[in-house]
Each structure stands twice: as C-alpha cells, then as structure tokens.
From TrEMBL, chain B:
Pfam families registered for this protein in UniProt: Oxidored_q3
EC number: 7.1.1.-
Principal cellular location given in the protein's record: membrane
Location of this chain's protein in the cell: Cell membrane
Class of this enzyme: translocase
One GO CC annotation: plasma membrane
GO molecular function, one term: NADH dehydrogenase (ubiquinone) activity
The protein's name in its UniProt record: NADH-quinone oxidoreductase subunit J
C-alpha cells in the first residue's frame, strides 16, 4: 500500500513535469516524483529489510533532491538573466 | 490501528496536495501545496520509524518551498498569490503518460510476490544510522559532500551576474577591472 501511494505521487509529479511550461513548475513536478521515491524507499526499508544501511539510500535521494533544486534554480536564474525567459517553450532551441 | 488510520489520512493528504500543485491557479498556492505534500510524506516516513529521515525531509522541504516562493516573485514579476495562471502544454499526452505510468507501477506493486521481511529493525534507528554513516558508509557521505560542494560552485558560476572573466577579460589580464562601479584601494 505504501508503494501505491508512492506510485500515485510519482505519477502526479510526472504529469506536472511533462505538462507545465514554467521552469519552476517543472521543477516542482520533479520534486514530487522524488517525494514518491522517498516514500517508496522508506517502505522498502521498513517492510523488506530494516537494515540500518538501507536508510543511507534515503539520505542519498534527499541529497539528489537538493542538488536538483540548487542547479535548477541556478539554470533558471541564468536563463532569466540572459533571455528574460521563464518558460520552457520559449527556450526550446536549447534542446537542439 | 491508530498508525494505520494516520498513514492513510496522510497518504490522502500527500497525494491530494501533490495534485493540487498543478490544479491551483497561482504559483504561491502551488508551492504551499507541495510543502503540505512533503510534510505528509515526511510524517509517513516517521510512521515507518525512520525518525531522522522524516524530520530532515520536513525541515528541508519547508525551507525549499520558502525559497521557491521568493524565486517566483523574482521571476514572474508579480504577486504570485494574487495572479491566477494556467500555463500548460500538451496536457492530454502528459495526462495519458502519467496515468499509464501509475497503472504500470500499481500493477507491479500488486502482482510482484514480495519477499517476507528479512531481519528486525534496530532498537534505536537514528543511532544506528549515525553509526553507519560514521562507519562503513562514510564513503557514501563523503561522495555526497563532494557533490554538494561542486553544486555550490556550479550554482554560483551559473547564477552569478559578473564573474572574474567579465571583470578581467577572457585571459584574466585586463587592468583595471571592468566594474560597473569603480572603486577599491588605490583606484
């Protein structure tokens, strides 16, 4: 059941990451996906193998989340400074 | 029994708040909804006996959402709490993909014959986690520390308005520096 809740959070986050146009909102979608991952990892740890080392994985996920946010904000700042753009569609040429 | 009920209530709150992030019509409300979702998951992690991780999740994410609200005001150039907005593209495909992923993950969750629990949780989970981090898993934390330091440097380099290359030129030889406001000792 924990995994079902985690799957729901992951899917809602995926919808946001795919559908939103504003860079910050896309980052919110990614955060929500990682939120689901945290819950799934916590569930795996508790119900399958409550070994102390398993919790280290959760800390790594949280660290990844922090790095994603920090770099995302830095890229959003640069994008805004260079192009006055805050939407992904207006920076589409970056994907080429 | 009480913890089961609490878990389900928190699950409903976390998922609904997560969905509200992309339903509410202002970015400030969206960031508050995301904070509520994170608090719900953090409390669920606490219910799964991982006190340290649960508390860290709640504290970190609430602060992160506060930073996010500041960013919105900076970049959107408006009061995000008052300005309704709907900025989505390709909504139908995104919805189809996310529903498909949920069905796939849920099917895997229900179909897979999960093994029985191996081992028992330690009496003091937080203390054993600390011992693990300061002992055999030190390398993981050391690697995370280096990545964090690299992130700080990369973040500042990307976001900085004026770096030393802007001031001293590409070969760093230009003197005096090209500063918007000249000053400093000896100038």
């Amino acid at each position: 059941m924990v995994l079902l809740v985690a799957a729901a959070l992951f899917s809602v986050g995926l919808y946001g990451a795919l559908s939103q146009q504003v860079v910050v909102m896309v980052m919110m979608g990614l955060e929500l996906m990682l939120n689901g991952l945290i819950l799934a990892a916590a569930g795996f740890w508790w119900f399958l193998a409550p070994d102390p080392s398993g919790q280290v994985l959760l800390l790594v996920i949280i660290a990844a989340m922090t790095v994603e946010m920090a770099m995302g904000f830095a890229v959003a700042t640069m994008l805004h400074r260079v192009r006055r753009v805050d939407m992904t569609d207006l920076a589409r040429d970056l994907s080429r | 029994m009480v913890s089961h009920v609490a878990f389900w209530v928190l699950a409903v709150v976390a998922v609904l708040a997560g969905a509200a992030v992309f339903i509410v019509n202002s970015m400030a409300r969206a960031s508050y909804a995301l904070a509520v979702s994170f608090i719900g998951v953090g409390l669920q992690v606490l219910l799964l006996q991982q006190n340290y991780v649960g508390v860290v999740t709640i504290l970190m994410m609430v602060m992160e959402m506060a930073v996010m609200a500041v960013y919105m005001i900076m970049f959107m150039g408006m009061n995000p709490a008052l300005m309704p907005m709907s900025m989505v593209h390709d909504k139908r495909h995104a919805l189809a993909v996310s529903i498909g992923v949920f069905v796939l993950l849920a099917a895997g969750t229900l179909i897979v014959p999960w093994p029985t629990r191996r081992g028992t949780p330690p009496a003091d989970v937080t203390m054993t986690l600390g011992e693990e981090l300061m002992g055999p898993k030190m390398l993981v934390m050391a690697a995370v520390g280096v990545v964090m330091a690299a992130t700080i440097v990369a973040g500042v380099v990307l976001a900085a308005h004026q770096t030393r290359y802007d001031r001293f030129g590409d070969d760093l030889r230009r003197r005096p520096a090209d500063d918007p406001q000249p000053g400093g000792v000896g100038r």
